[in-house]
Design goal:
Largest sheet: 3 strands, antiparallel
Number of helices: 9
Strand content: under 5%
Structural class: mainly alpha
Number of strands: 3
């Protein structure tokens, strides 16, 4: 008795290819830097607001929180309302990848956006929820960030992790010391943090007097 060498496809297996990510090619092929500038983050939020749609405020708030607190996609989708202390205005950030958790202040723009979000989406324990009141899928978040970059007409493709890099770079640009940035981003290894301070131009300020 002979067996056919042709292997049958698995029942229910999705034959559609995954959506290509702008982060799937070598970095140098698609962009010259892996972080966003503060003005680029704001232009993405503005573009979403102007485009409108049912979830425009949710998506704009998502970008704001991911940027201000250096959230990975997995950390953003898992964020729950119980992590917000409204009385003190603080956010408990739970890190993935064995990162160090921290409690971080929430500022005026964040608090206002979150309060409106809570009024708009009252039926779920998750801060960023889908139309079915569950947490957003990671692919959905990635798609939101990519679309925001396109709407803002940024000259390079954007991926979600660039918001975390943008946070580290912005803090370094403000002169924040490396240890503080390490604690804020939850890095176990400070070598991951040094990358941001190496990019900051402040250490070269004054080398040329004019």
């Amino acid at each position: 008795m002979t067996h056919s060498s042709t292997q049958q496809s698995k029942v229910g297996k999705n034959s559609n290819p995954p959506r290509p990510s702008p982060n799937s090619r070598k970095y140098a092929e698609v962009r010259v830097r892996e972080y966003l500038l503060p003005r680029e983050v704001e232009s993405m939020r503005d573009a979403l607001s102007k485009a409108g749609g049912r979830h425009a405020h949710r998506d704009s708030t998502l970008i704001l929180l991911m940027y201000r607190h250096g959230l990975r996609v997995a950390e953003a989708v898992a964020l729950r309302w119980e992590q917000i202390d409204w009385s003190s205005g603080n956010l408990h950030v739970k890190r993935v990848k064995q990162g160090t958790p921290s409690t971080q202040p929430l500022y005026g723009a964040e608090l206002r956006s979150l309060r409106k979000l809570q009024r708009d989406y009252p039926a779920s324990p998750y801060v960023f929820q889908s139309a079915r009141h569950g947490p957003l899928a990671k692919d959905t978040v990635s798609g939101i960030i990519e679309r925001a970059g396109e709407l803002a007409l940024l000259p390079f493709p954007v991926h979600a992790h660039m918001l975390r890099h943008a946070c580290g770079y912005a803090l370094a640009l403000r002169g924040t010391d490396t240890r503080t940035i390490q604690g804020y981003l939850g890095h176990n290894n400070i070598q991951h943090t040094v990358h941001y301070t190496e990019l900051a131009p402040e250490r070269f300020r004054g080398l040329w007097d004019e």
